[in-house]
Design goal:
The structure is a single chain. This protein has 426 residues and is an alpha/beta fold. It folds into two domains: 210 residues, UDP-n-acetylglucosamine1-carboxyvinyl-transferase, Chain (Alpha-beta prism); 210 residues, UDP-n-acetylglucosamine1-carboxyvinyl-transferase, Chain (Alpha-beta prism). The chain contains 13 helices and 23 strands. The strands form six sheets. The protein has a four-stranded mixed sheet with strand order 2-15-17-16. A four-stranded mixed sheet has the order 4-5-3-14, with helices on one face. Strand 6, helix 3 and strand 7 form a beta-alpha-beta unit. The longest helix is centred in the N-terminal third of the chain and has 13 residues. The structure holds shikimate-3-phosphate.
Amino acid sequence: MLVPHIHHLQGEITVPGDKSISHRSIMLGSIAKGTTEVTGFLQGADCLSSISCFEKMGIEIENNPAAGTVRIHGKGLRGLTEPASTLDVGNSGTTTRLMSGILAAQPFTSTVDGDASIRKRPMGRIMTPLSQMGAVFKSLHTENCAPFTITGGRLQGIRYESPVASAQVKSAVLLAGLYAEGETSVTEPYLSRNHTELMFETFGVDIKSEGTTATVRPAVELTPQRIDVPGDISSAAYFIAAGLLTPNSEITIKNVGINPTRDGILTVCKAMGADIALSNVKNDIGEPVADITVSSTSLHGCTIEGDLIPKLIDEIPIIAIMAAFANGTTVIRDAQELKVKESNRIDVMVKNLSAMGADIEATEDGMIIRGGKPLHGATIDSMADHRIAMSFAIAGGLAEGDTEILGAECVNISYPDFYGDLYNLM
Ligand code: S3P
């Protein structure tokens, strides 16, 4: 993909549905008894992986991308059947980890595998608590990695102190907790996104949250629901950054999820001095949504750390781009999780932003960006990481000259029409 210099951006845009909520709608819909109807479902490759895995376990799922609806004919908590072949999670860490929480309780053995990126990502973080609950894991190639088999069984509730603030770990344990004997709780160092807890409540599960601890009691049956998935703030983030950084621009992004465990990008924008406004704020489905309007602003650097990190973990690549164009220094720390995402996002950001002329340095747990240096076009390897490709499409549009993005098609993971939507605002 060749990205030319962009002169200005103007207009309204609706970004695709939230990836986290879309995955959870398939999983809870599959283990609820009856039909769950989802609108605004993200038709990205990751969420399609979740659909195909649950179809392999006997769930009928009617996906109608043209209408933007998905109907899941759930068979109840104990209705999944043994898959005849490997559950292929593609590039999706969320599918792998959340689904494992459900597989941990099934009376059969399943094999889980994915692409080259998935095979490198740490799965010990779910294997440890789910094994403590009673599941049996076997890594087939590399210890604590996919591919692995998981043999489910009778589970025992646990109190798990997670060493990482990870919604995927928390959700895996809570999903297993639906089937366990007694209460299951997860405490994390900082609060991660709480979509699982909110959706559990909607489906009638007994779940409580207090501080950074979530506690679930075993379920008898989940009640099917209608779920209207809001726009993904992680996808909106690229247009927030583009609207702020491109001269003479104003963009409104409609119907974006602004759950407080996800809205760290808004906090950072304000700290950087951004002209950003929310309107039409609604909270119909337990998940707050709003329209976000951004206008060109001269930004300044800031420090991003601590409990803010899980609230913007997927937005750090685009925040790093904003920091490169801002005046002054931006420090990102406590973000060592970036090393185990779809790529090592500390290394990849530093390498690619340096290639464009930015002053950026990797640290053990983040990066330091001394902003304000003029950036020039370069050849950028996305490392098949969707968030890297989208971040550098925005950086490329702002830089002088042309930028070439290698592996640009990986945006298909979370935002298939990304380039078209960007083009439409020019
Ligand atoms: C997700 C949680 C986060 C995030 C990922 C989606 C989820 O991962 O990076 O894109 O839907 O639960 P971690 O739980 O590994 O932080």
